[in-house]
Amino acid sequence: MENKSWVGLLVLCLAIAVVGLAEAGVPAIFILGDSTADVGTNNFLPGSMARADFPHNGVDFPFSRATGRFSNGLNSADFLSKQFGLKRSPRPFLSLNTTSLHKKSFRGVNFASGGSGLLDITGRTMLTLMKFGKERIPFGAPFFNRKNVITLSEQIQQLSLVKSNLAAIKGQRLTEKLISKSLFFISTGSNDLFGYYHSNTSFSEEAFLSSLELAYEKHLKSLIDLGARKFGIISVAPIGCCPSQRIYNTTGGCLEDLNDLAIAFHARLDALLFKLSSEHKSIKYSLGNAFEMTINVIQYPLAFNFTQVEAACCGAGKLNAESFCSPKAKLCPNRNNYLFWDLFHPTQAASKLAAVTLYNGGPQFVYPINFAQLAKA
Ligand SMILES: *[C@@H]1O[C@H](CO)[C@@H](O)[C@H](O)[C@H]1NC(C)=O
Ligand SMILES: *[C@@H]1O[C@H](CO)[C@@H](O)[C@H](O)[C@H]1NC(C)=O
Ligand SMILES: *[C@@H]1O[C@H](CO)[C@@H](O)[C@H](O)[C@H]1NC(C)=O
Ligand SMILES: *[C@@H]1O[C@H](CO)[C@@H](O)[C@H](O)[C@H]1NC(C)=O
């Protein structure tokens, strides 16, 4: 008897968990992009230098587990997924095995890979820069032999593989339907802008932004060809205000030129999405303005319970931003009051705020509809 009621309860709990996502008409969530959304992809790349599967990362995750997230706990991909009734982000593609897609509980895949960008070249150059910060070392042969990141192009190939596997299990028609109703979250672009800004290229800003816009268009068209219809896109935050960039400004202020690049990138992305949605009437999108969201927090920190929006919580040196977060780094105690976890990434508290704003924020932060409306659209 007792056993039976346990089973009954279990079934009920499972049913409720499934209803959360199904209620919104969203069968699954697919996440692509960079370290802002990576939930452990790079743990599977032994040679990668963009990894976070060691303490103090994860210090506020259940059991203080370092999962590969660049955060003290969950990241924005997790909190967005939670808004749609999942426990956290779907698992990384590279952690899946042949049984994963068969599961009744299949609710999506996360492909995001720290260090990647819109351009295939970005993972290589960026990592050297990120890893060594100010003591930059020349981009050398050893780094070209390593698999540092899964590029966005590769992430889309992986999605294509997932789709073929789903089709083999569920049939082509059901799979097409699943893909067309699913949400595709993309968070990328920062690493491309960092790479451009810190390189000495003679490429003009306009030409570079055009190349990024073209790359984004190519990626989105590939996703549309695969049947994706609902896009939740997150643009670039004021990355000139990252602790890692503030240390290049003698006043400790933001690097204005880098912020201007982020604003210009947002305008390009806005125009591109408008164009694509006119060409493909069946696609729906939300564009999250990470710049406005974050600048708002930096200007009015106390309104969001933040007391420190300049220094990193985990790191070393000036603004705690002269090294990456590592077991030897200095760790702040009041992590809920920090905007930045490490020299580049937001804390769990900041990621949660971002996800809630994307989900139900107004048009100044997420446009033309928010993520909740996107799910129902
Ligand atoms: C597949 O992955 C799941 C979840 O990590 C694990 O429990 C299971 O044992 C794996 N199955 C095989 C055949 O490796
Ligand atoms: C960047 O460009 C300046 C001026 O053209 C040059 O003096 C400098 O050596 C270059 N730095 C690097 C790292 O290539
Ligand atoms: C450095 O920060 C100050 C604000 O403190 C700002 O006015 C200035 O433009 C910044 N410098 C650069 C190079 O961005
Ligand atoms: C605000 O910060 C305080 C101090 O760290 C913390 O105890 C509290 O939980 C925070 N409040 C919210 C709503 O996050």
From TrEMBL:
Residue ranges of the TM segments: none
Keywords: Hydrolase, Lipid degradation, Lipid metabolism, Signal
InterPro entries from the UniProt entry: GDSL (IPR001087), GDSL_Est/Lipase (IPR051058), SGNH_hydro_sf (IPR036514), SGNH_plant_lipase-like (IPR035669)
CDD domains reported for this sequence: SGNH_plant_lipase_like (cd01837)
Superkingdom of origin organism: Eukaryota
Gene Ontology BP, a term: lipid catabolic process
GO molecular function: hydrolase activity, acting on ester bonds
Signal peptide as annotated in the record: 1-24
The UniProt record lists the keyword Signal: yes
Sequence similarity: Belongs to the 'GDSL' lipolytic enzyme family.
Protein name as catalogued: GDSL esterase/lipase
